[in-house]
Amino acid sequence: MALVTLKYVLQRAVKEKYVVGAFNFFGMENAQGIIKGAANKKSPVIVMAAAAVMSHLGEKAVIGMVKGMADDYGVTAVMFLDHSQDYDLCRRCIDNGFGGVMIDASSKEFNENIDITGRVVEYAARTGCSVEAELGHVGGREDNITVDERTALFTKPEDVAKFVAATNIDALAVAVGNIHGFYKSEPKLDFDRIAKIRSLSPIPLVLHGGTGIPDADLRKAAALGINKINVGTELKINGYLKVMQKECTNEANDAPQKVMAHVRDAITAIVEDKIQVFGCAGKA
Question: Residue 94: which domain range?
Answer without folding.
Answer: 6-278
